[in-house]
Amino acid sequence: MKQTCRVLFLPDNRFVAVPCGETILQAAMDADVHVNASCGGSGSCGKCRVVIEEGEVEREPNLKLAEGDIARGYALACQTKVLSDLKVTIPLESRIGDRRIFERKEPEPAQGHLLSAADWEERLPEWKLDPPTRKVHLVLSEPTLDDNASDAERIKRGLAIEAGMREVVIDYPVLQRVPNIIRQSDWDVTITVLDSGQGLRAVRIEQGDTTRQQSAIAIDVGTTTISAELIDLENGQILSRASDYNAQVAFGEDVITRIIYATRGTGLAKLQSVVVGTIWNLIKNLVEQAGIEYCNITHLVIAGNTTMTHLLLGLNPKYIREEPYIPSATFFPWMKSSDVGLRIAPGVYIYAIPSVASYVGGDITAGILASGVFNSDKLTLYIDIGTNGEMVLGNKEWLLSCSCSAGPAFEGGGVKNGMRATGGAIEQVRINPIDYEPMIITVGRRKPIGICGSGLIDSLSEMFLTGIINEKGKINLDLPTDRVRASEGGAEYVLVWADDSATRRNIVITEVDIDNLMRAKAAVYAGIEILLSSMDMDVSMIDELLIAGAFGRYLEVDKAIAIGLLPDIGYDKIKFVGNGSLLGAHLSAVSREMTDKVNKIAHQMTYLELSMNPNFMDHYMSALFFPHTNLDDFPSVKERLEEYRAAQKMAAEMPPEKREVG
Amino acid sequence: MAFNLPTETAKGKVREVELGAGGKAKKEGGENCLPFHLWEGQMPNRPMVAAEVSDEVGEFPAALEKALGDVKNDPVAWAKKAVGEWGADAVFLLLTSTDPKATDAPPEQAADTVIKVEEAIDVPLIVYGTEDLEKDAELMKVVATKAEGKNLVMGPAKEENFKRIGAPAIGYKQTVVGMTPIDVNLAKQLNILLTNLGMEADKLIIDPTTGALGYGLEYTYSVMERLKIAALMQNDSMTQMPLLGNVGFQAWKTKEAKSSQEEYPEWGDPEKRGIMWETITALALLLAGADILVLRHPESIRLTKKLIDDLCAVGV
């Protein structure tokens, strides 16, 4: 056997040399070629399908690959060793998906409404533009033998007189630059002062008057996606926006896999540098779009879940995962951005929105700030659905939060043909109740590759209402359609036949998929019930239901209610927040008042650990049913079911030639 | 001022279910108070004691062998004796012969036994398979067909085979016992599935799975109690079915009930021990809210009926 083998990855057209015997997945990692792999290389997810075009390999037997696939050259990248020089194609379904996700048109929700600027004014009346960093222009008097105060004292005196700022501490790197700059600029300088909440710091010195060139960046560091905004601090306007996948995705799709990676060897440093890389690219993009100078940026505010914040700040996340689930910190000081590896300009500081607990992070605190829940008289339920369903119940008097592990099902994980919401993902589904034929729409209106979260919820709801599945999620194989059928892995419904799909394989929803989704929705709903019942309240008392997060935006409320993911409250009570985390980071970046508030929110919010709750299992079991074991809690679903059954009965009684199908 | 006992009245009541047809029919359920809280409501039908009869028996513990004598191998005679001599309110026929892991008798043969037993007795008949999902479905289809109009109580229907047992029961007008593994929600869910299939809610009985004394009795106790509370206090329609406790089968499986004197001399008379184990399990379930108790030993049947008499008398 050769010592090193060369692997060519197509369509990226990228070569890499690896020791022979290495797996294709590792080779792809080394080549910086993306292959979907959500199980970390254990061979259990079956998503890292590649096609061996040329060369010798050694395959571990794996049930995730059908005989026919092997004959066509398919292999699982993580279960296949490189034995010679290879040519490997990454097929469509194994690619990360194009970045067009970020251009995916956000729909106006059909039910419920999106919070708008007018809403913010009502929700956050105290808001005003008063950023935590401020540039102060000073024209200082030249020192003389009579007035022989040091340069630093002269600056401090100027800040006190000009801006009323007292006891400003001057950062060491600023001090080093003071004597030269102050003289080069003929005593005309701009000092950037940071109010860290624990005193004022002069963080930068510039020549002349640069007060009008000041911007901040707000960043939502999501487990999957990172979004950022560049804000002009002179007027609070957003200058540019950018989003990208968190490059950490290559090291595991969920926070738990990332924590495990971080605790091995130099994993933490690696993950930190990778996320810093993604953020740096976004900042570059923001700056180029807006056509500003890097040195206009005076601070960054980031909001992320507790694990993402830990990884970005380089804090050990190990104990988040182990009982009793303790984060390194929930409150974070203003830090120099260069300390985390972001070298933007001298004296740029970064602030991370505080977390509440290991599984209720700064993204949620930020969302509660941005949505004004902390200011509201209304009893509000705020939900952010993703891999973890985080939720907060409360109003201006109190806030109670919890997090339930929904698993990756809503993001397409653990689902046979699940995928993220990228091009070719089925995002909307309708099923005809008479002949059970589906109607589907994909992201980018392309040939379907798989099904994303909103498509899965649509499918479930339609399958349930039309009676393809029963309340337990079991497929009715007696229906007069060949789309329902038994297969090796249990019963399934064929949403797209192979001929119509981009992968040339059937796109199906299996009973196993349905079980996984059912568990995910049950965990979320049980969490909602626990929050309510621990305050001795019930669903009918909720005045407002706020849905945050990217996933929420594409959610069709009636579908989510039909499967019992969301409580059956009137659509008019349901509102979409959008990216609450980014909004909260934005507000904190432009207002000291809001930074204070977000700290208070994090301090005041009570966290309920569901794994300790003796009633969780009971609520969970009763939610493992469509829509719920207590159907009376879902009156609108009950009504719709009756309508569907009546329509089906009418059709069944009609002679076939008169039936209108489609 | 005279002392008035505080009372708590229920919002709902358990459905009255008819077991058997014609002159043999008996009603069960219908209570609108917690078990034996007769100062708070009524139990129009006293809890029922059904004698377990099997169509094929291997070896029984000595105490049971002695009590059964020669009827052990004759289900018809056994059933007649249970009703005539022991005073059982119903017969619970366990079709052991159909077990695919043992004799695997064909459904038709077992169904013939069902008919013979049914014809020999003048009380309702409950027919149980061996909890083999596939076999039970085949078996109950034949039983339901052959016994059309007799309103047998058939079971156990489980989540995995409820359709195949429920459909013939609907078609041939039988009553069904739904069985779920010791969980309030699962019991309720199965009732929803069965009623959605087209079963009338008053043709359903809940078997929440029984654990004998020392072998999980407390789980069954709390599940039965919670089902009864949901039915009465929360007026939860899908829990308002009578509850069945399959006591004999479980109680006589325990080491305490079946071990001989030689094995455990310090445990005392094995006959008394076995009877007490069965009766005490039954008593606990009566207090938890069981409406139908399935027992094996004639003395347990007598004692349990006496307990029911006494509890009903105390209440008034």
Automatic annotation (TrEMBL), chain A:
Task: Report a single Gene Ontology molecular function.
Answer: iron-sulfur cluster binding
This chain belongs to the protein called 2Fe-2S ferredoxin-type domain-containing protein
Q: Which residues form the 2Fe-2S ferredoxin-type domain?
A: 5-94
Fetch the CDD domains from UniProt: fer2 (cd00207)
Gene3D superfamilies noted in UniProt: 3.10.20.30, 3.10.20.880, Domain of unknown function (DUF4445) (3.30.420.480)
What is any Pfam family matched here? Answer: Raco_middle
* Source organism of the structure: Candidatus Solincola sediminis
